[in-house]
Amino acid sequence: MSTITVPPMLPPVQQDCQALHHAFKGFGCDEKHVIQILAHRNYLQRRELVNAYRSMYGEDLLRRLEKELHGNLEQAVLLWMMEPAERDAVLIRDAMKGLGTKDKTLIEIICSRTPSQLYYIRQAYQTKYHRSLDKDIQSDTSGDYRKLLLAFASGQRPEGPHVDMHLADADARELYRAGEGRVGTDESTFIRVFSTRSAAQLHAAFAAYKHLYKRDIDKAIKRETSGDFEDALRLIVKSATRPGRYFAKVLYDSMKRMGTDDSTLIRVVVTRAEQDMQYIKADFYQKYKKPLESMISGDTSGNYKHFLLSLVGGH
Description:
The protein is an all-alpha fold.
């Protein structure tokens, strides 16, 4: 459910390259023309454009964009032009490098991606940074939170829509016995169930939990866990049940206060535009009674605003 619009009759990729090269010439970059092209090409078309530009001009298009653009627009466009797995690898590395860890970003990327996406992210991380994602997670996190991230990042969960209702019922009962049904919490059971079941299977288990115990699993997690471990478990629940609502809240929170959390706004818009942004927009409107486009328009400006609106299907 992508929100980007691609022209029905695309010009040849060489023509796009020539137009971009012309936009870079002279005093200052013609940012509007760059956006007009890049924001309206899908991932495969952008990759073809990068290869063709290098062939025609002997120059890396991303490095040229880095020279020509500035600020939030530069950050957004550069992320947009990366391959999805490389982009997520960059976001993960940025979340862990330096002093302190941006745990919300780390949790969002690892716990909302599919097993196949995580497989390619791990490869991209190793290729780009010559580092093991597992070892970096190991050194930057701790406790049950670390165990959950490592188990989830391994990408060993099954995918697909198949659901075993008997297993869902058994998992619901086991999660209850590990949490609300005892004194203290058996975190290892939560980690095992959450990291070895497909999203569809987890969705069924959470529905069974509510049917059996008249309580949402999310509320049980809030009562039984805390900190980053709680945040990661709750994001897995939301990703399995209604990811659009989760990302709608992240976007709203990035813009609701004085000043905009641009890094979060950019991250979510760029990473979800070709995934499920239509669903996110619908959930955003349902929850906050305003279009996502209007809130972006009110919180950003200039060509940065123009680029974000182009990605979310605004005008």
